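Dissemination and training. As part of the outreach component of the grant, students in the summer workshop were shown how a complex can be specified as a set of sequence lines and then modelled as a single object. The example used during the hands-on session is reproduced here so that future cohorts can follow it. Participants entered these lines:
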Amino acid sequence: MSTLEATASKITDQPIIDQLIEHTCAEMEEVNKLLLSRVGSHVEMVPQISNYLISAGGKRLRPMLTVAAALMFAPKDQQHISYAAAIEFMHTATLLHDDVVDESDKRRGQQAPRKIWGNAASVLVGDFLLGQAFMMMVEAGNLEALGILSRSAAIIAEGEVFQLSIAKDFNTKIDDYFEVVKAKTAALFEAATEVGAMAGGANSAERAALKTYGAQLGIAFQLVDDALDYGGMSGTIGKNVGDDLREGKMTLPILHALQNAADADAQFVRDNLGDQGANQATVEKVVGILLSCGALKTTLNRAREHANLAKAALEPLATRNGAQILIEIADYCVERAA
Amino acid sequence: MSTLEATASKITDQPIIDQLIEHTCAEMEEVNKLLLSRVGSHVEMVPQISNYLISAGGKRLRPMLTVAAALMFAPKDQQHISYAAAIEFMHTATLLHDDVVDESDKRRGQQAPRKIWGNAASVLVGDFLLGQAFMMMVEAGNLEALGILSRSAAIIAEGEVFQLSIAKDFNTKIDDYFEVVKAKTAALFEAATEVGAMAGGANSAERAALKTYGAQLGIAFQLVDDALDYGGMSGTIGKNVGDDLREGKMTLPILHALQNAADADAQFVRDNLGDQGANQATVEKVVGILLSCGALKTTLNRAREHANLAKAALEPLATRNGAQILIEIADYCVERAA
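and obtained this result:
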């Protein structure tokens, strides 16, 4: 294969997430500048903690979705930049608070901020970022978009309280689980694509399509996350595997196993759910049970269904700029767990 | 004295806080209805925790200030009701998060919610209330008022992070202390009166006057709180006295003592500041030191100065409906520590 062929094939084979990054990179540079400019404070812990999380990266999937949704149409001013930055600040605030809520030690592959600066600072800097997110939205001057974001802020929090209240509750129904997923994860994805479409000047049908796309993608994304917490389809035991087990989270893999595993296996899951000290051997045995009763496969099948709904929502807009990337991103979100 | 005279004199002697309650009671009933209607959720902990704090009362000083500011002019629609409710939700969210930050056991004379429902629920329900506050503001439809509230949300959080970062820091300057006070307390008082004036249709000079009134009243209020945490002028040791000492807060009474008390006394304060296990005898000795070196008197004198600035700001509006009540409320805020 010649160098030219290799290059051509490299472009074609470029992973879809890299295509999304490339497609949105000029705008995301503006978003990043805006984010950095808005965490400035003479109170050192504010930029320290914010930058720690912002530079640790993560893929910035949510603000990229906002930008990509806007680019499908014709964004005129900088609204899509402000909206994308506000979405990322809301997400970062959620991460800071979640770490406190879950008593997590790790975040984005490094120490959780609360382990370095403490719970108090994590709560307060989260509040600061939430305030900044709303200030940016106010400056962008669109009341309707502000309504969408403030509503999702309330829904996300409500969903997390619900998740907390059903932890270790063996009466939890699969519908309860989906309610949590829609609130704690899908609500922000949905807001991200809907405000992006608004900033692009989408008409109401187009906006509804992007809103559905975001919501369904968010559900698929969380289902996959919940499968990955038990190693995904390969059952690979990585560093964070078993966190949900220790926290007693009633995720779909667990709910499926409680209903479908052999009695002794279901009892083993029940006995160890919420045991903060569950060791590697216990986690491995639970993963084995989830694999053998089909819990991980079922979870990923459900994720695939929602990814397909996300793709279907974009079908009528398939010829729009960048639409194919968003369509394939739905596959990517599921395939990362294969 | 006849019954009639007694009644008349009772009205005249009615404590000013009761006059404020009476002056705003029709509107506050609407505010309360709105608050209760906005904490509804099938997720039981959301209304449970919210109502626990909302019905525990507190005086609702901040939303009453919003209503009273509006009533000085001619509020047309229900904006002042929405703004007042949003201010109270923001305040309640702050209380929930503060209890987690300060690891408090008590709030409004009863167990802190975090002692009943845990830190995680307190953080998340605080987030929910913040989201609801912004939703109400969006529904009220005034972008400028939304800007004022979102800015104060960020300022309050930033001020609390600053307070946290200077805890037990003996290099703290009196200016640092005032910066914390302005951010963590005065910012919300200032927003409360400013958005109230806006809802009433005040012109820009009137709005500026109310904004200054709120800011100065807020500073006075916090200075008095910080003196009361050591028993106020009487040095009475009530149930929460000494909390700030145990948390290592660098409040004005402490900063004054460190600079002005006899060497051995200053050393005693330094040695015990931030000692979470400080016992009654230690607290009493610190209170004695603060009384004898004039720290509490100085703090209350500074509070008086700011209360006077609050009153002066309202002078040009002294003939407006209810202005005298707001003017006297400034005295009340200082006198409660006498």
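The interface with chain A takes residues 41, 43-46, 97, 100-102, 119-121, 123-125, 127-128, 130-132, 134-135, 137-139, 141, 143, 146-147, 150-158, 160-162, 164-165 of chain B (CB under 8 Å). Students were then asked to discuss how this feature might be tested experimentally.
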